[in-house]
Amino acid sequence: LARNAPQTWRLMVEYLSNTSRNAYKQDQVYRNMVRYDTKRKGLSALLDSSWWESFGMVKSRLIRRKLRRLDQAMAQGSECIHAIWGTASDLEWDDTHNTMMTRIAPTMNQCVDHAEKLMNECYRASIA
Question: Which of 108, 38, 40, 33 lies closest to 74 in space, CA to CA?
Answer without folding.
Answer: 40
